[in-house]
Design a protein that fits this description.
- With about 475 residues, the chain is mainly α.
- It has 19 helices and two strands.
- It has two domains: about 400 residues, MFS general substrate transporter like domains (Growth Hormone, Chain: A), CATH 1.20.1250; about 50 residues.
- Strands 1-2 form a two-stranded antiparallel sheet.
- The longest helix is centred in the N-terminal third of the chain and has 36 residues.
- The chain starts with 5 loop residues before the first helix and ends with a strand.
Length: about 475
């Protein structure tokens, strides 16, 4: 590989982080605009859930395919295509005439998004060849996830209030254009020497499993949890999952390498991503509606109310990177669990007239918790893997985040809607969700100790040689 100058590597890292900023912020920026979308397009609560989950579901389903396509056809090429599709999807969302079209265009956006994050992470891994530089770049990458999630509600509230909800999609267009140009000028083309074969059956099974599960959770209350349709769809999701694991276990180069999960830190990182991002997505979804529907705030004020959460994430995201490289993953994960648990315990007493000072304290704690964990998830997932497997490991970690986001919104919305349907006020109806987050926080604390135990270290060493296969390849530069 041709040696790149430090300045060029820095600009490449910034370009990759720009794509991550767009994709991650798009997950959260929509939340504050939900009430405006609901009024403008006459959307139901389940439709609002689909506006969020159509995006996260498609990204989760196709992230690993995006990484495989990049290995085969070139990372720079797939990255540019993904950015173009994402930008076109954003433009289409901004002109959607009905809620059904908006949901469909969010899926188009997501098709572009699935070609960005894993590919960008793979570009970073191959551009930063020095282990220390790669670790710093990976830490910054994880920190951008936290910062983008924090900025989403603030930017979304400002744009929705000042211009309208459609403006939250316009903001992607200039950044997308800039990223395409910078990539063409500065990012060297690379691909795997021997790319993993495409696996259409595995891809189809992933899509069926996730789509069926999400549909059953969101629509179960309306159709009936005991109905033949919902029970059948839950069964379909389970069968697709079992079939996927059996199919992948027989493949020489699987899309989802089940051997990764013998690595205890990697498995813990997957669970950590699902739990923490699931809690965060449910938190954003419910609090955005609570602030606007129950407290009567405008979109801008609702976005400003999340400022303590944003500050917590912005401060703790880079702090987590420093702690990670100085003390390892355990302090970050444990602090995340403690913060989420404390915030959720406080919110189990949420009421229509809860003082804003108490809300801000909860938001700050929640932001600190999520800020501490983002860099840790990526680092833990990638650090124990051979270089050739880093891109796939990062893709699975990113997929886990998206699965958590989809399930968090789906479950939070269903639980709350079921209780408000009985006449309960919105604030009280959210209490079971917060008790669920308390359980998640306690589980995260346990994962902090489990993932850094001697048993976990031994598991990493015992499976490392299994993953160093010539067929999974290094990188070929052009």
């Amino acid at each position: 590989m041709q040696e790149l100058s430090p300045a060029r590597r820095t600009v490449i890292l910034a370009t990759c982080c720009l794509s991550l900023l767009m994709v991650s912020m798009d997950v959260t920026i929509v939340n504050v605009a939900l009430q405006a979308i609901r009024l403008d397009l006459h959307a139901s609560l389940s439709a609002l859930q689909w506006i969020i989950d159509a995006y996260t579901l498609v990204v989760a389903s196709f992230l690993m395919l995006g990484g495989s396509l990049a290995d085969r056809f070139g990372r720079r090429r797939i990255f540019q295509i993904g950015m173009g599709v994402f930008s076109i999807g954003s433009l289409l969302c901004s002109v959607a005439p009905t809620v059904s079209w908006l949901i469909a265009f969010r899926a188009v956006q997501a098709l572009g998004g699935c070609m960005l994050n894993p590919v960008a992470m793979s570009i970073i891994t191959h551009v930063f060849t020095d282990p220390k530089e790669r670790a710093r770049a990976t830490g910054l990458w994880g920190a951008v996830v936290g910062i983008s999630m924090a900025l989403g509600p603030l930017v979304g509230g400002l744009l929705t209030q000042s211009i309208g909800w459609r403006a939250i999609f316009w903001v992607n267009l200039p950044f997308g254009a800039a990223a395409i140009v910078l990539t063409a000028c500065l990012v060297p083309e690379s691909r795997a020497q021997q790319a993993r074969p495409l696996d259409p059956l595995a891809q189809l099974l992933v899509l069926i499993a996730l789509a069926a599960l999400t549909f059953a959770v969101i629509e179960g209350h309306e159709i009936g949890w005991g109905s033949t349709i919902i029970v059948g769809i839950f069964a379909l999701s389970a069968l697709a999952t079992v079939a996927l694991l059996m199919h992948e276990a027989r493949q020489r180069q699987p899309m989802l390498d089940v051997r990764f999960f013998r690595n205890v830190p990697f498995s813990c990182a997957t669970l950590l991503a699902i739990g923490s991002i699931g809690a965060f997505s449910g938190f954003l979804f419910l609090n955005s509606l609570y602030l606007q529907e129950t407290r009567g705030l405008s979109a801008m004020l609702a976005g400003l109310c999340t400022l303590p959460m944003a500050l917590g994430m912005i401060v703790c995201s880079p702090l987590s990177g420093w702690l990670l490289h100085r003390y390892g993953a355990r302090p970050n994960i444990v602090l995340c669990g403690i913060s989420l648990t404390a915030s959720a315990l406080w919110q189990t007493q949420l009421a229509p007239d809860t003082p804003f000072a108490a809300l801000f304290a909860c938001y700050l704690l929640f932001g600190c918790g999520v800020g501490m964990v983002n860099a840790t998830v990526t680092y833990t997932a990638v650090s124990g893997m051979p270089l050739a497997q880093a891109g796939l490991a990062a893709a699975i970690a990113s997929t886990s985040r998206q699965i958590g986001a989809a399930l968090g919104v789906a479950l939070a919305g269903v639980i709350t809607h079921a209780r408000t349907a009985t006449g309960m006020n919105f604030a009280e109806a959210t209490h079971p969700v917060w008790w669920g987050v308390v359980v998640i926080g306690a589980a995260i604390i346990a994962l902090g100790f489990l993932s850094t135990s001697r048993w976990a270290e031994r598991s990493s060493a015992s499976v490392a040689h299994l993953l160093r296969e010539p067929a999974s390849g290094g990188a070929a530069q052009q």
